[in-house]
Design goal:
By secondary structure, the protein is mainly alpha-helical. The protein is about 65% helix and about 5% strand. It has 24 helices and six strands.
Length: about 550
C-alpha cells in the first residue's frame, strides 16, 4: 500500500480531530493538514486531485437534487448576486489600487488588468465551503440558506461566462442540445423508480453526476461542475431524490477531504505571501458588509441578511482557477497564485468562526443591524402568529403531516402546523390543513412567535435532530408560557439529549415503528383473532 496515502489519511484525521475539539468544522483541520504536509515537502498528486474534483462534482450534484429551480428567479437571488459581484469588484479594485499607490510588495507590480483580475477572483464565494457550513448547521433549507445557495449558483454561471471569454474557447454548437435535457426527465424518473435503495441507487447517482452531468457538459465546452449541478436539478422533486443524496453523502464527504488537502498542498508561502494574504483576509469584512447591505435592500430581515452574508464570507476556489489562468497567460505573477491559495484558506477559517458564533454576534448587535431592515418585510421573512391554536406541529413533512392528521381527529382546528417552505405550506392548505410558514431554525422566529397560554403542546417533528434540538433550546428560553414539548428522535443518543433539554416524551422512530406496526395489525385483525379456534388453543 502507498505509504504517502497512509500518511495523508493519518495527518488529515489527526488535524481534523484536534480542530473538532475546538468546536470549529473539521474541514479547517484538513486545510491545516495540507499546509503541514506541504511544509514537510509533500505535493499534491494527480490521484488526490482526481478525488478532490470528484468530491466537488458530487457536492454540486447533491445540491441540485435538493434545489428548487424557482429559487434562481427570485429577485434577491439573481439581483443580489449581480449587484454584489459588481459592487465587490469595484470595492476590491479601489482598495488594491490604494495599496499599489502605497508601494506595498506585489501590489505595486499589478497593472490595471491585474487589479481587475484579482478583484474579480476575490468577489466569488466558495460553493463547497458554504454548502458544507450550511449542512453542518442543518440550515440548507432555511431561507438564508436557500438564498446563499442560489447566489452561489448565479456566481457559477458568471464563472462559466468568464472562463469561456478568457480562454477564448467558445462552447460547441452542440451545447444548444443541452436545452433539450428536461425532455429526458421522465426517463430519468423511471430509472430512479427502478433503481431501488441499494448499490444501484448509488451507482445511478455517480452515472448522472459524472456522465450525464460533468462529462456531457465538458464534452461540449461547458463547465463540468455546472453540468453536475444541472444533472441533480433534473431529478429534484422526485420522492427518491433525497434518498439518493443520503446514499452519496458519506462518499461525497470523504472525497471532499481530498479537496481541502489539495488546497493546503497547493504551495508553500513565504512571509511576504502570508502578509499579503492577511491583508486580503482583512478585506473580507468589506465583502461581508456588501452582502449584508445588498440583501437588506430586498426587504430581508437583518438576521437573514447577516446569516446569508456569513455563509458567503469566504473566498472561492474559483479564485485559484482565475489566478492559475492569469499566471498561465502572463497577466499575473506566480506569487499571486500562492497568495490567493493562502487567502482562500484563511477565509475558510474566518468564515468558520463567524458561522459558529453567528447567533451570538447577531444577538450582540441586533439593535444596530435592524436599522438596515425594511419596514415592510419580504413575504418569506415575516413573523408568524398562531392565533387560538393549542397544539403546534413543527415540521410538516410526512411524519409531521401524519401527526397533524391524527391530532386533528380529536382537536380539530386547534391544531396548527408550521413549515419553513411557503410552497409546502400552500400545498397543505389545499388539503384543508391549518399550516403557516415559519423557520424553526431561525432564532428570530422564536423571538417573534406570539405564543399564548392557549398553547398546550408543541410537537417537534423535523426530520433532522439538529433542528429539533435547536427548537428545544429556544423553547427553554420562553418562561412566560407553560406547555408540553414532545419530539421525534432516530437514535438513543438523540433521545437522551432531547430529554436533558426538558423534552418529554421523546419517541424513538425506529423503536416506535415496530410497536406502531404491531398495534396497527392487531387493531385490524383483532375481530378474527379473538374468535378463531387457533387463538383459543393458544
Amino acid at each position: 500500500m502507498d505509504t504517502n496515502l497512509l500518511l495523508f489519511i493519518g495527518t488529515a484525521f489527526s488535524f481534523g480531530m484536534v480542530i473538532n475539539f475546538t468546536g470549529l468544522p473539521p474541514m479547517v483541520g484538513f486545510l491545516l493538514a495540507g499546509f503541514a504536509l506541504n511544509f514537510f515537502g509533500f505535493e499534491s498528486s494527480e490521484g488526490l486531485n482526481t478525488f478532490a474534483n470528484l468530491g466537488v462534482t458530487l457536492l454540486l450534484f447533491s445540491i441540485g437534487l435538493k434545489l428548487d429551480i424557482r429559487t434562481l428567479f427570485k429577485a434577491e437571488v439573481w439581483g443580489g448576486a449581480s449587484i454584489h459581484i459588481t459592487a465587490s469588484i469595484a470595492f476590491y479594485t479601489l482598495l488594491l489600487f490604494a495599496l499599489k499607490q502605497l508601494g506595498l510588495s506585489f501590489f505595486s507590480d499589478l497593472d490595471t488588468i491585474g487589479l481587475i483580475l484579482v478583484s474579480f477572483a476575490l468577489s466569488f464565494s466558495s460553493t463547497v465551503f458554504a454548502v458544507k457550513i450550511l449542512e453542518e448547521k442543518s440550515e440548507t433549507n432555511s431561507l438564508y440558506g436557500r438564498i446563499a445557495i442560489g447566489i452561489l449558483i448565479m456566481q457559477d454561471i458568471f464563472a462559466v461566462l468568464f472562463l469561456t471569454l478568457s480562454v477564448g474557447k467558445v462552447p460547441s454548437i452542440w451545447a444548444f442540445a443541452l436545452l433539450a435535457l428536461p425532455l429526458v426527465r421522465p426517463l430519468l424518473f423511471k430509472l430512479l423508480d427502478r433503481a431501488g435503495h441499494g448499490e444501484l441507487l448509488v451507482l445511478y447517482g455517480f452515472f448522472l453526476a459524472l456522465v450525464i452531468g460533468a462529462g456531457l457538459f465538458e464534452s461540449v465546452g461547458m463547465k463540468a461542475d455546472l453540468g453536475a449541478l444541472i444533472a441533480g436539478m433534473l431529478l429534484a422533486g422526485h420522492p427518491s431524490a433525497k434518498d439518493m443524496a443520503r446514499s452519496l453523502f458519506n462518499m461525497k464527504e470523504l472525497f471532499l477531504i481530498c479537496f481541502f488537502l489539495s488546497i493546503g498542498l497547493g504551495g508553500l508561502p513565504n512571509m511576504e505571501h502570508l502578509l499579503i494574504a492577511l491583508i486580503l483576509s482583512a478585506l473580507l469584512f468589506g465583502k461581508i458588509t456588501l452582502y449584508f447591505v445588498t440583501l437588506t435592500k430586498f426587504k430581508l430581515r437583518s438576521r437573514t441578511s447577516l446569516f446569508a452574508a456569513f455563509s458567503l464570507a469566504n473566498y472561492s476556489e474559483f479564485g485559484l482557477i482565475v489566478a492559475s489562468l492569469a499566471t498561465y497567460k502572463g497577466w499575473l505573477s506566480q506569487d499571486w497564485l500562492i497568495i490567493t491559495a493562502i487567502a482562500v484558506s484563511l477565509s475558510f477559517i474566518i468564515a468558520s468562526v463567524l458561522n459558529k458564533y453567528s447567533d451570538n454576534i447577531y444577538s450582540r448587535f441586533t439593535r444596530s443591524l435592524k436599522r438596515f431592515q425594511a419596514t415592510r418585510l419580504h413575504l418569506d421573512d415575516r413573523p408568524v402568529r398562531v392565533g387560538d391554536a393549542q397544539i403546534l406541529v413543527m415540521g410538516m413533512g410526512r411524519i409531521g403531516a401524519g401527526a397533524y392528521d391524527a391530532l386533528k381527529v380529536n382537536y380539530g382546528e386547534k391544531v396548527m402546523g408550521v413549515d419553513y417552505d411557503h410552497q409546502t405550506t400552500l400545498k397543505h392548505r389545499e388539503f384543508g390543513r391549518r399550516v403557516i410558514t415559519g423557520d424553526a431554525l431561525d432564532s428570530d422566529f422564536w423571538n417573534k412567535l406570539q405564543l399564548t397560554e392557549n398553547i398546550k403542546l408543541i410537537l417537534l417533528a423535523m426530520p433532522d435532530h439538529n433542528g429539533n434540538r435547536y427548537a428545544a433550546e429556544q423553547l427553554n428560553k420562553i418562561a412566560s408560557c407553560s406547555f408540553k414539548v414532545a419530539a421525534l428522535a432516530h437514535y438513543k443518543a438523540d433521545e437522551k439529549e432531547l430529554n436533558e433539554l426538558g423534552v418529554n416524551p421523546v419517541y424513538n422512530m425506529y423503536e416506535e415503528a415496530g410497536s406502531g406496526f404491531a398495534h396497527h395489525v392487531w387493531t385490524e385483525l383483532q375481530p378474527q383473532l379473538t374468535t378463531s379456534q387457533h387463538k383459543q388453543e393458544l
